[in-house]
Amino acid sequence: MSIKSPASVRHGDQSFTGSIPDIYDDYMVPLKFQVCAVDMARRVAALAPYRVLETAAGSGVVTRALAPQLPAGARYTATDLNPSMLERAKSQQPHADQLSWHTADMMELPFEDRSFEVVCCQFGVMFLPDKLQGYREALRVLAPGGHYVFSVWDHIDHNDFARSVTAAAARVFPDDPPDFMPRIPHGYHDVAAISATLREAGFKKVEAAMLIAEGRADSAATVAKAFCQGKPLRNTIEDRGADLDHVTARIAQDLERQLGKGPVRGKLQARVFTASA
Fold it and tell me: ∠ at Cα 122 (83, 170), nearest 5°?
């Protein structure tokens, strides 16, 4: 029997559309994803693969960090479910000849069996409606002896910015607090359960490492804009009929009271899995 994730993916949770890709890349990536992408790139590059598939590539932060570190002649395929995110990623690496770009669903990858030596995914598997199926697809496209390297955020209590934004949003909407952050990005982190599902999918060996880093921003307002307008949290705010800029400003004021004025720092904590085919 498959071990189910406690997180329930809803309509809109995977929607990175409109201006979200640009705000995500300009604000969210420097805040919390860049430092984690450097770690992901280091882990994958150490495997010296010649055929790499990245799923849920988003705006390309891992792609930018990893591609220059691959061996000469390596081929790198970057995919994402959202075409607008992939377009942003492509625009940031227009002359990377070893790269190819595809809109693709992690649940049903459009690639032949045993096509890649490494599949990597930074903070994407939390959005899978069926984790077991997603892991089976990753295994299917991996060559024997290949590796699936992916990361998930740890519990929201260990991630300062996400926790602070979620608390601030609850004060703006006390009767209907947005639950996107604790439910999806920070709702899938049980190492034993994830490892068990990977083994059920057919992976032979599973290792998990903890990543602790520091996120930085020039102000609480930057943190508020990153979370409120550069992630699907934006959809949950707009679904409530609220003015996005007004809510962002209120949350920025709340964050400033929590985090202080001027540059802010916050703890980031994630889990990085390496599963061997």
Answer: 85
Burial of 195 (0-12, 13-18, 19+ CB in 10 A): middle
184 within 8 A of 7, measured Cβ to Cβ:
yes
With a CB cutoff of 8 Å and minimum separation 6, the contacts of 241 are none
The DSSP line for 40-89 is HHHHHHTT--SEEEESS-TTSHHHHHHGGGSPTT-EEEEEES-HHHHHHH
The arithmetic mean of pLDDT across residues 58-63, rounded, is: 96
Q: What is the reported pLDDT for 231?
A: 77
Mean pLDDT of the chain: 92
Task: List pLDDT tens digits, range 85-114.
Answer: 999 999 999 888 899 999 999 999 999 999
Q: Is the pLDDT of residue 254 over 90?
A: yes
Pair type for strands 51-54 and 75-80: parallel
Find the angle CA(70)-CA(75)-CA(48) to the nearest 5 degrees: 35
> For the chain, give me the number of helices (H) and strands (E)?
11, 7
| Contact present, 33 and 121 (Cβ < 8 Å) | no
HSE toward the beta carbon, residue 9, CA cutoff 13 A? 15
**φ, ψ dihedrals at 59, nearest 5°:** -85, 10
Output the six-digit token pair for 115: 């096509």
- Cβ atoms of 58 and 127 within 8 Å: the answer is no
How close are the terminal C-alpha atoms of the chain, in Å?
Answer: 21
**What does the alpha-carbon distance between residue 252 and residue 235 come to, in Å, rounded to a whole number?**
18
Give phi and psi for 60, each to the nearest 5.
90, 20
Cα–Cα distance for residue pair 172/241, rounded to 1 Å: 13
Phi and psi of 114, rounded to 5°? Answer: 60, 35
